[in-house]
Amino acid sequence: MHAQSHDDPVSPPGPARPITDTSRAEVDRGQTASQPARRAPARGARDPHGTLTFIFSAILLCVGLTGSACSFATTITSQTQPELPTEPPALTEPPAPTDTPITIATLAPTEAATAAPSATPTATLKNLEILEWSEFPYAHPADSANTDTHVEVLIRNPNDVPVRVLGDGVELRFLNTSRAVVYANPNPVFYIWEGSWLLPGETAALSACVCFWTSGIDRQEWATLELVAPLEIAVDLAYTFDVDVTLSEFFSLAEAHLGGSGTGARITLTNTSGAVLESIPLFVFARDLNGRYIGMATYGNAVASFADNIGIQPGDTATGVVVNEIEYFDEPMTYEVRALGIPASSATTARSTPAGTPVADWRGVPIMPGALTGEPVDDGYQFVTQASIAEITQFYETTLAEQGYALTLSGEEAGITFVVFEKDSMTVVVGITPAAERNLVQIAVTP
């Protein structure tokens, strides 16, 4: 990936330590399930030579923890979750401690599969289980008085069928030693396939803010977690594990002249199946050298095109750089990569051109005056204009600078010009695809 680096307005992460010992617990009451996770947008372009290239608009950049719904915090007090009498089902064995700070474990390829309920499905779905959690301070405090923290949690689907997490009624509860609820977060961020489902017996993850300070209530001691998340059996799931993923060791983005102050890793994704894929979602789980879960290092959804609905052909390969989003832990970590392929549907088309009337702005980002047509698309907004690429980039550099955004990355990949801007926890990606005498512009905003 070719990119020009720019000054990053975010300061380097300072030393941090977990403030809670990792503990294990089971969710033991109530029908449970969860709110679909917000998927990190992935963008890219078809290489004419058959190579899939992409831009992760929420992975490539150092952005704040999504879904926290609060300001960053710094000062915290220790919490310890008591052991419960019953051990939960065993976790997938984490990498053993080693002197090498980074190890990679990937899922073995399997035949393409369509998940469906078993012939004798469980009469009542079991709750999602909480296996392990740790609590951390936020890495970049916006207010020194803010004592909010966040928890990084491993969860498991104990059912023998795939389950889908429903959007209503989700809540991560924080309980004291008397099992009274002292705080509840209704918007935890789930790291699950397509933001929606888990396979039988699968371990996944979630993040949530412990937002006493932001909520304007006194911080209270808590000892354990309870997840309330309604579930349903997930039917007609189509997926394959026949994708190959390689991840390099993490390196300094600044030293590599890629912009940003954190670390990144080069990643390669290959469709090794015999089917055309719509996307390749992936998660990178991070653990310390003792095997304790630290958080989701990076996550996203690779697609074949930034602007077009083009399938990922068998043998296509994506290359790019992903950024480690864990800025709150500075000790060596090991990484487990999980990815699968989502087969393309019959609705996949060769090109999608906006046909509606352009709006004045989208999520606070102005749409360039003179746009001919425009409409919202998945995870973004696109419009057609007769303005040149130079005029488009200059327009967004000027207008977004006026809104306080800093240009952190720009470049060109497989014929697509892109510019990336950051402000606090917000990231704006603008991609420009030449089309005859017009240009197709697509905008993505995260979170």
Question: Could you provide a short overview of the structure?
Answer:
The protein is mainly beta. It is built from two helices and 34 strands.
Write up what this structure looks like.
It is a single chain. The two termini are 23 Å apart. Helices cover 4% and strands 40% of the residues. It is globular and about 65 Å long. The strands form 9 sheets. A 7-stranded antiparallel β-sheet has the order 1-31-32-33-34-30-29, with helices on one face. Strands 3, 4, 19, 20, 21 and 24 form a 6-stranded mixed β-sheet that branches.
Task: Throw out a few tags for this protein.
disordered N terminus, 4% helix, mainly beta, 34 strands, globular, 447 residues, 7-stranded antiparallel beta sheet, 6-stranded mixed beta sheet
Rounded Rg = 22 Å
Strands side by side in the biggest sheet:
1-31-32-33-34-30-29
Mean pLDDT: 74
What is the helix fraction of residues, given as a range?
A: under 10%
Distance between the termini: 23 Å
Shape label: globular
Total beta-strand segments = 34
Low-confidence stretches: 1-112, 114-123, 346-351
Main beta sheet, described?
7 strands, antiparallel
Secondary-structure topology with pairs:
Layout: E1 3-5, E2 20-21, E3 42-46, E4 52-56, E5 79-80, E6 104-106, E7 113-115, E8 129-137, E9 149-156, E10 163-165, E11 171-175, E12 181-185, E13 189-191, E14 197-198, E15 203-210, H1 212-215, E16 224-228, E17 231-233, E18 237-239, E19 243-247, E20 251-252, E21 263-271, E22 277-288, E23 293-302, E24 317-323, E25 333-339, E26 342-343, E27 361-362, E28 365-366, E29 373-377, E30 380-385, H2 389-402, E31 406-413, E32 416-423, E33 426-435, E34 438-446
Parallel strand pairs: 2-5, 4-24, 6-25
Antiparallel strand pairs: 1-31, 3-4, 7-18, 8-9, 9-15, 10-14, 10-17, 11-12, 11-16, 13-15, 19-21, 20-21, 21-24, 22-23, 22-25, 22-26, 27-28, 29-30, 30-34, 31-32, 32-33, 33-34
